[in-house]
TrEMBL record:
Pfam families: Cytochrom_C, WD40. This is Cytochrome c. It comes from the Bacteria. It comes from Roseivivax sediminis. Residues 1-18 form the signal peptide. The keyword Iron applies. The keyword DNA repair does not apply.
């Protein structure tokens, strides 16, 4: 054991916190735990984390925020991201297979044998096998989640169109609409053996229905919205629900009574939940980039997880306009110093006078790497005047324009001061 680590975690999160997984540079959007207790995380910082004994190993191949991770057997991890791709990671070999084809972000994944199902905001579900995809169309909106049933013969999908639909996997056809909730459905969890399907929706509804008939079994809605995360213990005895207001509710599935309902974070959403294999520990993530764990038995006394000193949560009136621009529009992807943890974008320390693509070890796009641009007040202004997608076509930086010239000027002034370093910029020609 590492007594010091445990003591630190306890100091941060109160007596009930067991372990905190830190290292991601952006919010954690997805968590999965395999039967051996290995934890995988999907983050806004573009990376997938694989945690052993609390230590991260980074899997880098996505070009944008990662939304979902799923273990599929002993050797395989699946991830889906805002770059529209599904990646199948062969963990022992360290190789990746990229499944491209979706035209929107990938939000949900499920695996049955050799078939992978992916749910995307392009409104489709894809069934991947042998490197090929079959496309299931029919939903009238973004698809948020999928789960296989009947050993892979059926698939359930949940969509922003407010429905859960059932598909025949062999035929690739829709069998029926199981649930028509009216409001968008974000998450589903199925326990076939026990005969229930849980769904969580944008209007705050958390309902338990029969996966056969869609008939309601229980209603766990607590008046908080939206529901963003659902997780069941591996033995199916408890269901955890996380919402946009920062609460976690845990219900026993025997009679659907609420065992715990507590505010897990002062600010912002619970994006992801998962249970350890024995069901005794709950993993949760929100805005503060770390994954927090609690022993289930002690959830009642749990203290809120820290939201950290999140710069984008600081009071706006305490900042200059330039700093406010940076905190709101850039800080989630960039640090100013390089020592503030992993982010989707490169650290901006020493930016002025540096050639584009100059941070050693950062995986730039070819577009940026080959641009031979020099970062100055003028080029940074131009980048956000026309937008990165026009200024550097092919860049990984998201589309974003700052329309008002004063805001760009204030941002550039702030960056010039905040990114100045004592040491000269590193050599960029390698
Ligand atoms: C959602 C994430 C994201 C946001 C928000 C974002 N960036 Fe970026 N930024 C990136 C990524 C990713 C790259 C690398 C692009 C590439 O390789 O094509 C990048 C690259 C850059 C570069 C080039 C750095 C270099 O080393 O050459 C600059 C300058 C930059 N961003 C400034 C900003 C500023 C200023 C803002 C806010 C107005 C901002 N970015 C907002 C993700 C982001």
């Amino acid at each position: 054991m590492r007594p010091l680590g445990i003591a630190l975690a306890a100091a941060l999160c109160g007596p009930a916190a067991a372990e905190t997984l830190t290292g991601h540079g952006g919010p954690v959007m997805g968590i999965d735990v395999d039967a051996g207790g290995q934890v995988a995380t999907a983050s806004f910082d573009n990376s997938v984390g694989l945690w052993q004994e609390g230590e991260p190993h980074w899997l880098e191949a996505h070009e944008a925020a990662v939304n979902v991770v799923r273990f599929a057997g002993d050797d395989t991890l699946l991830s889906g991201a805002d770059d529209f791709d599904v990646i199948r990671w062969n963990l022992p070999e360290g190789t990746v297979e990229r499944l491209s084809g979706h035209q929107g972000k990938v939000m949900g994944l499920s695996a049955a044998g050799d078939i992978i199902a992916s749910a995307s905001w392009d409104g489709t579900v894809r069934l991947w096998s042998g490197g090929k995809a079959r496309v299931l169309t029919g939903h009238d909106g973004p698809v948020n989640d999928v789960t296989f049933a009947e050993g892979g013969a059926r698939l359930l999908s949940a969509s922003a169109d407010g429905t859960v639909r059932v598909w025949d996997v062999a035929e690739g056809t829709e069998i029926r609409t199981l649930v028509n909730h009216g409001f968008g459905i974000n998450e589903i969890v199925l326990d076939e053996a026990a005969g229930w399907l849980a769904y969580g929706a944008v209007d705050g509804a958390t309902r338990i229905v029969s996966p056969e008939t869609g008939e309601e079994i229980a209603d766990l809605s607590a008046g908080r919205r939206p529901i963003l995360a659902l997780a069941a213990t591996p033995d199916g005895e408890a269901l955890a629900v996380g919402d946009g207001e920062g609460f976690i509710l845990v219900a026993g599935t025997a009679d659907w009574s609420v065992a715990h309902d507590f505010r897990a974070t002062q600010h912002g959403p619970i994006w992801a939940l998962a249970f350890a294999p024995d069901g005794g520990t709950l993993y949760a993530a929100g805005l503060d980039k770390a994954v927090h764990t609690w022993p289930l038995a002690a959830l009642g006394e749990a203290e809120a997880m820290p939201t950290g000193n999140e710069s984008f949560l600081r009071a706006p009136e305490t900042m200059s306009n330039g700093e406010r621009q940076f905190q709101r529009k850039c800080s989630i992807c960039h640090t100013l110093t390089g020592d503030g943890g992993r982010r989707a974008g490169p650290p901006l320390a020493g930016l002025f006078g540096r050639e584009a693509g100059g941070v050693p070890g950062y995986r730039y796009s070819d577009a940026l790497e080959d641009s031979r641009l020099l970062w100055t007040a003028e080029t940074i202004d131009a980048l956000f005047d026309v937008g990165p997608d026009h200024y550097l076509p092919g860049t990984k930086m998201p589309m974003q324009r700052i329309a008002r010239p004063e805001d760009r000027a204030d941002l550039v002034d702030f960056l010039a001061r905040a990114t100045a370093t004592d040491t000269p910029p590193k050599e960029t020609d390698e």
